[in-house]
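Purpose: get a first structural picture of the assembly so the mutagenesis plan has something to point at.
Setup: four entries, given in the order below. No constraints added.
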Amino acid sequence: MAVTIGAVAKAAGVSVSTVSRALNTPDLVNAATRQRVVAAAERLGYTPNPAARSLREGRTESLGLLIPDITNPFFPPIFKAMQERAKRQGYTLLVADSDEREADELETIAAVSKKVDGLVLWASMLPEDRLAELAERMPVVLVNRQVEGVSEVHVSLTDGIAQAAEHLKAYGHQRCVFVDGNGNRPDQSRSKSIRAAFDAHGLSLIEIGPYEPRFETGVHAAPLVLAHQATAVLAHNDLVAMGVLHQLAALGAAVPNDISVVGIDDTLLASVSTPSLTTIRIDPDEVASRAVDLLIGLVHGRPPALPVVQVGSRLIPRGTTGPARRDPRQ
Amino acid sequence: MAVTIGAVAKAAGVSVSTVSRALNTPDLVNAATRQRVVAAAERLGYTPNPAARSLREGRTESLGLLIPDITNPFFPPIFKAMQERAKRQGYTLLVADSDEREADELETIAAVSKKVDGLVLWASMLPEDRLAELAERMPVVLVNRQVEGVSEVHVSLTDGIAQAAEHLKAYGHQRCVFVDGNGNRPDQSRSKSIRAAFDAHGLSLIEIGPYEPRFETGVHAAPLVLAHQATAVLAHNDLVAMGVLHQLAALGAAVPNDISVVGIDDTLLASVSTPSLTTIRIDPDEVASRAVDLLIGLVHGRPPALPVVQVGSRLIPRGTTGPARRDPRQ
DNA sequence: GGCAGCATTGCAAACGTTTCTGATGTATGT
DNA sequence: ACATACATCAGAAACGTTTGCAATGCTGCC
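Result (structure tokens, whole complex):
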């Protein structure tokens, strides 16, 4: 059916091995025959069968990306950047959505792992020992998850949060609420960083939650913010912040005049909201590049220079933050 | 390195062919040996090498999905639903983002086509003849693109648009603006359906554009809406609608009191905006299921019952539509 | 009791590719 | 001129799997 290397060989009047060499290691064949082969391949529209190549080579030229939920607008830019980066290095990216469920994650890894040369696991929910075990069998890069002996890209919110605290402090805010949307996930670093940064700036911080990172969580949090007489809210992410904005409007609280709101992630939501959302940006291109490069390094047997790669963050001040109200209404 | 079928055969004391049969066609082997084989496979953690299987079988058990831009919030739910549907039937889904560029689309198809058994091409920008040619070489399902002789899933906005016209008419609107964000893409059906529906309801319709389907397009359109003395806007999609909302607020026009706004797609944006956006919903699960089932049918050599499968739409009335203002300010 | 038929299993080919091992011819150095 | 080296290519093996074919042993029927 499809045009194989044998057909090209026959068309060019050489053996299959010569065709293979002409295409893969051109220096090893005579210039004239190489041209004949290339011309024949071109004319017949030959493209190598990746299954056969994989079988022989033991490599698939594909990378896997496992994410908790592609519906979270944080991930599409990540996927896009990773795909771009992978393509540039000759790899195809295979994404899989684990739907935030540990069982699905295991199943998906099983289905995908043999089809790729390595895996990027984003915020994996698997237990440590399983991850360690997996990482011994194949190249694995973790993002936002720490396991001894496994390579990792760590996105640090420290800088962005410090800037947010500075920003709110400068605007005269004193009482802030943090809406924790981390649910029951293992990683508690977000909450800790925020506590540290706000303490450092002498801002009083009220933590509520943990809840799930959903729009409704923000809706739920809005009246609590007013009840706590706070003038600023830092939400777990942009989606939660949108819920806060929505319900503050329903409650008649003006943003940013009465309450300032800060999100995290700088997703599409933040730039299209009204008013546009002040948020903490994590550069998707950077984390994607780091993760892909690290993984490809592992695939090629190059151990990482550092066990964990850090990626920073920064505040993007927009329309939902402003001077604190001197006389909170209630 | 990895555990092969040969290792299982040795462990179970049988030949490789028996192992293969015990796992794939259990009826053909003795119950006792089958159990030995299954036990051995389980114990060694055997999973078949998909490359070898593909090579032998000529099938990859994967499907490809090509979309213009995963960053468009319309697509993540589509992807998720397709992945789910494909998984249930034993297929892996390989997504690729063509970045709205025809050149990238070609390149991506070339990179992906040999790794999958069939392709879903969403709103392809390729010329007709290339698509027809591709569809002859492998199973192809088009979405929102029509080419003679190629299977297609067509999402029809007709119902949703009719409901929107009805909705606006009932609220007393008379002059409406449609913001065309179709750019230079071939498919003009959206614009035509809208013209037809609004004419049918006796609503005067002012079309502006075509522009690109971006937030900024909505920002650009907002003052035009006011200048045209319209009381309602139908935007090309939710993203454009968000731009309209944003800029109307900046211009001091209240939504929905002064102007009503309707989006299309019912993406996450619509449900989290303030006020929440009235929009036309296309059920992602339905179109995803239809496309995947159709494609798998083609892969298995089953020709489609109908050349084109229709998927409907409906209006989701929310907070951005209301009674028309009797005395437009300007 | 012999033979047909069936259940069960092993052997070997095949899928398309890469690469190792030689073979052939030509150029080079002495 | 002869041996050596090198450039160039063909042949064949190997990757892991499925499956057609053949071999074996057993059952059951006449």
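The mean pLDDT of chain A is 94.
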